[in-house]
Amino acid sequence: MTTVKVAILGYGTVGQGIYRIVNEKRKQFKSTLGVDIEIAKILVSNVNKPRPHAPKELLTDKFEDILAIPNLEVVFEAIVGEEPAFKYLSQAIEKGINIVTANKVMFSKHGLALQEKAQKYGVQVGYEATVAGGVPVIKTMQNILRVNEVSHIQGILNGTSNYILTQMRSEGMPFDEALQDAQRLGYAEADPYNDISGQDPFRKLMILSALAFGEQPNWDEVDVVGITEITAEQVEDAKAKGLRYRHVADVRRDEVTGKIIATVGPQLIGSEHPLYSIEGVNNAVALDTNYIGTLTLVGPGAGMFPTASVMVEDYADMLVKAPVTVSI
Ligand code: HSE
């Protein structure tokens, strides 16, 4: 049996989910993937703070300790913000280590560069968890883009916003209370302003744009509006008319100019709209393609296990594509 060593960067909601899933599934991975996955180290900012489930001896606050792990196969990155995440992942790739990330802030900006670097160093990059939590939109798009072209993407890409809008409508819950719930349930960002201001779905939309079109629009030209201005009265009024507020991220290539055009903001939609029925923390991504037609994916867009499980799936895919052959 081959033992593979992996490391986790960050031990917040998602990092803990990875730790638990890898350990819960360790026996199954031995039989299905033929490897024994061992979590060798976890990078945290404070090694003295008690961490649920993880033994203290696995913790380190130095990234050099991660790079020093012999035959490290993959780093699962679940830290917040652009830096030092980009620096760490660049260094990991240069050492021949595969990377799996959930960091949309970092990847929306540096994703194309990291993928180029990974190709140069012969390692793989998994980023399913950067967009729409547990919904397999990245893998699905990578697959359909082999044959189809994607011309237009419309999505609900923030679970927190959708949860708040749903609770306001269905339970008559005040905005602040719904946001607190979303934080308690582990849906919201460390700074929830990123969720409710539209910045979080904007970053996810940019990742989808890079994948679908090989490029992103000029960020300064994208109109990004959040849900903070939507009042309880407006939600009630819409409800009485059979309408719902949805926070929609939209990107398409203009047929005439070829330019990529994106918008992020609330829309008032009726029951005929494909995003009308998407409730709670669910995300949805509707893809217009030339051969398949319109394909809509729906599922939990945030939370510990949906997000962490797609990261572990990313690594399982890597093992299938490039099996580890050396016993260590
Ligand atoms: N805060 C994000 C959301 C988490 O609510 O969708 C998943 O990216």
Structure, explained:
The chain is an alpha/beta fold and 328 residues long. It is built from twelve helices and twelve strands. The protein folds into two domains: 2-133 and 305-321, NAD(P)-binding Rossmann-like Domain (Rossmann fold, 3-Layer(aba) Sandwich); 137-301, Dihydrodipicolinate Reductase, domain 2, CATH 3.30.360. The chain has helices at 13-24, 26-32, 63-67, 85-94, 104-121, 137-144, 159-170, 175-184, 193-196, 199-213, 232-240, 304-321; strands spanning 2-9, 35-43, 59-60, 72-77, 98-101, 125-126, 150-156, 223-224, 244-253, 260-269, 282-289, 294-300. It has a six-stranded parallel β-sheet, sandwiched between helices. A hairpin with a 6-residue loop joins strand 9 and strand 10. The relative contact order is 0.17. The mean pLDDT is 96. Bound molecules: L-homoserine. L-homoserine (HSE) binds next to helix 7.
From the structure above, extract its key features.
six-stranded mixed sheet, Dihydrodipicolinate Reductase, domain 2, Rossmann fold, six-stranded parallel sheet, alpha/beta, 328 residues, binds L-homoserine
